[in-house]
Amino acid sequence: MIERLDYLEINAKAINWLASTNKHITTIDKKLRALVELRVSQINGCVYCVDLHATQARAEGETQQRLDCLVVWREATFFDDAERAAFAWAEAVTLLPETNAPDSLYDRLKEHFSEQQIVDLTLIVSLMNAWNRIAVSFRHLPDARG
Question: Rounded to an integer, what distance in angstroms lies between the CA atom of residue 88 and that of residue 74?
Answer without folding.
Answer: 9
